[in-house]
C-alpha cells in the first residue's frame, strides 16, 4: 500500500477517537468531573508528545531557528483564529456543561463550533503524515497521544453541544466530518512535505506543535481544571508519564 494512503489511514484512526468519545458519552451518562479527569489525562499525554516527539523531531531535522520560529508562529496563528471563533460562539466548544451557547442565543455559533473543532484537529493530524516522511514508520507515540486526547474532546464537546440544544445528528455529523478531514490532513501533511528541506519540515512540525500547545492552554486544560480542581495536576501528570514511557519504549 502506498505511503500516502497509510498517512490518510493513520489520520482517520486517530480522528476516529472523537466519534468514540461522542459514542461513549451518548451511551453512558458520565459526570462532568469524570469527563474532566479524562480531559486532564489527555492533556498530559499531548504535552508529553509535544516535548519528546514533535519538538524533538523538529529540532533534529532543522535545528533551533526553524523549530522556534515554527513553534511561535503556530501558537500565534492558532490563538488569533481561536480568538476570532470565540467571539462568534465557539469559546466553550470543549466544555461539557451549559457554557456553550445555543443557536437561538447566538446565531452562527454552531458553525463557529464546527470550525473550531476543525481548527483543533488539523495540526494534530498533519504531524501524523509528516512522521512518515523518508520511509519511516508512523510516529506511533503521536498517533496514540492524539487518539487518547481525542476521546475526552469528543466526550466533553458532545455533552456541551447537547446541553445547548444541538441534536444527536448534528453532534455525530460534526465528528464524522472532522474524522474524515483528519485523514485528509494527515495525507496532505505527507504529500506537501515530501521532498521538502529539513528546515521546512521542522518548521511545519513545530507550527503544529505550537498550535496544539496553544489549544491545550485555551480549551482542554481550563475544562479539566474547572471540574477536577485540585486533582487536575495529578491526573495531567499521569497522562504525561504514560506518553513519556511510550516514547522510551518505542525508542
The description of the largest β-sheet is:
none
Count of discrete alpha- or pi-helical segments spanning 4 or more residues: 7
What proportion of the residues form beta strands (DSSP E)? under 5%
Rg on CA atoms, Å: 17 Å
User: Helical proportion?
Assistant: over 70%
Query: What structural class do the secondary elements suggest?
Result: mainly alpha
Mean pLDDT: 82
Stretches with pLDDT under 50, minimum 5 residues = none
Q: How many strand segments? A: 0
| Order of secondary-structure elements | HHHHHHH
Describe the 3D structure.
- It is globular and about 50 Å long.
- The longest helix is centred in the N-terminal third of the chain and has 59 residues.
- It has 251 residues and is mainly alpha-helical.
- The chain contains seven helices and no strands.
Question: Briefly, what is this?
Answer:
The chain has 7 helices and no strands. It has helices at 3-27, 32-90, 109-130, 140-163, 168-193, 198-228, 232-249.
